[in-house]
Structure formats: structure tokens, C-alpha cells
Amino acid sequence: MSHIELRHLKTLVALRDTGSLVEAAERVFLTQSALSHQLKELESRIGCTLFVRKTKPVRFTSAGTRLLKLADEVLPRVHGTERDLQRLAGGESGRIFMAIECHSCFEWLLPAIDVYRDQWPDVELDISSGFHFAPLPALGRGDLDLVITADPVPELGVHYFPLFSYEAQLAMSKDHVLRAKDWIEPADLADEVVITYPVDTDRLDLFTSFLDVAGVTPKRVRHAELTTMIAQLVASGRGVACLPNWALYEYTQKDYLVVRSLGEEGIWPTLYAAVRKDQAQAPFIQGFVEIARAVCFENLQGIVTAELDELPES
């Protein structure tokens, strides 16, 4: 057994603060005799006297003063940890270390984070930078706590909250020959330069849900990091691009670009917030999902509510 326990430190602090054995005993919910016994036991363990008896207020020895210094260092940290654990147990505190598989999502994510931090100040929140790793496996391992993705896969232990559905549209310059079509067919893109974010084509709706299923390969794929850069390249006739309808809205409103649906029915992916199943019911996680949805539907044009039956099995 350790010589010094937390109860000893609490008793010494009570003795210092009250100045008498009687009042200290009341503060730590002991009888005076039990408190005296506890202090004598501690002195026996460490082999030192802690305070001078029969002095008022109590006068501590060098050993007692050293233990009080320890108490002043340790007890506040213990109390703080206990409060944090209580918040965690009540769902008021936690950690959300997130990653984003959607380049254009920063447009709505940062305002959502600002709102969330105001409403959930005790939650530690951070964003992993970069798109060059597999975030869903990292989520399952516990390296991440939340992933924004439009490409859910059946990962063991992962739950997907649908945020919203959107149309993936093809953007082209105002004088592009395809502007004359009511909608785009896969074969129309066989001779086109497709401008995309720098990610693998197996993570892009244009390929996975449109070109690949028809066995069509574009003339060339060109990469650009930013949505504004892609829009500028498309507007200047350097190629075409597939982007979310809400990300294209401002460019079409300014008559900067022309957009068309991919196929007669269009392609409507769903954006999800993926979390580990053991955290899916945590209030601070559900709070983030609710705020993200609210911010999106308040600010994004063209999005619709995702149907529950679109949830993937996991």
C-alpha cells in the first residue's frame, strides 16, 4: 500500500484551511477521533510528525508543509479530471478529431464548426489535414472520431449519419458544345478533359456511378486542388468537371458556367458523417450531426433530405 493517499492530502488541506482538528473533521465528514487516528497512521507510515499538537491555529512541520505543497499540486488536477469524467459520462464533453473526404465541404463545414464550438465548448475538436490517406479504416482504429464522406463502405463498427443528398452535375464553359444537350451521356465525355480534385478516380462519382459502369474513359484527367481553380479552368474551356450542385450554384447564378445532369435522372449521392458505433449515441456526436445538417440546409442550395433507406449496412 502506498504511504500517501488522496484522503490524507484532503485531510491536511482541511486542517490548514480550518485551523483546528474539530472543524477539519467536519469538512472531511469524519469524527475528530477518526481524523486524529488517520493523521497518526500517516505519520507512522512516513516516519515524520506533520504538525505541532495543541497549537491554534495549527502549525505544520517541514514534512507537513511539503505534503501540503503536494496536495496543492495534485488535488486540483484530480478534481479537474473528475469533472471531465463526469462531463464525458453525461455526454457533455469528448473529442471529435475529424477528416473530410469531400474537398468542397469546407464551404459549409467551417461555419458548422463555429456554431458547434459555441454550443459545445467542452468538446475538443480538430480537423485532420490532407486527403491522402484512408480515413474510414483510421476511424475504425480510433485514430479519428468522425469522417465526412460520400463513399460509405461496410466497415466493421462504423455507423453512418446521412447529412443530405445532392446532385453531382457536370460543369462546362458557356460556349461548350455539350451545352446544347438536355443531359449528358457517358459517351459524350470520351473526348473530354475532365478536371477533378487530386484523388483516385474510384472515389469520384463521375467515374464510379457514370463513366466506369458504361466502360467509358475520358481523353485525359487533370487535377486542381481548389473548387475556385476548377471553376476557372472550366470557364476558360480547359475541360469539364463534376461537382456538387450546391458548390456550383454561385457560378451558375453569375452566368459563369453551364451545368447539366449526368443521365436523364441525374446522379444523387448522399453525404454522411461516419462515426464509430460505440460513439453513435453520444450527445456530443449527435449534437455535431444536428448542427451540421442545420447549417447545410440553411446555407446550401439544391440539397435534399437523405432517405433513411439509403443508409449503408455496416
TrEMBL record:
It holds the Pfam family HTH_1. Keywords: Amino-acid biosynthesis, Cytoplasm, DNA-binding, Methionine biosynthesis, Transcription, Transcription regulation. Gene3D superfamilies: Periplasmic binding protein-like II, Winged helix-like DNA-binding domain superfamily/Winged helix DNA-binding domain. Residues 4-61 form the HTH lysR-type domain. Its main location: cytoplasm. SUPFAM superfamilies: Periplasmic binding protein-like II, Winged helix' DNA-binding domain. One of its GO terms (molecular function) is DNA-binding transcription factor activity. One of its GO terms (biological process) is methionine biosynthetic process. The keyword tRNA-binding does not apply. Trans-acting transcriptional regulator of RuBisCO genes (rbcL and rbcS) expression. This is HTH-type transcriptional regulator MetR. The lineage of its organism: Eukaryota, Sar, Alveolata, Dinophyceae, Suessiales. The gene is metR.
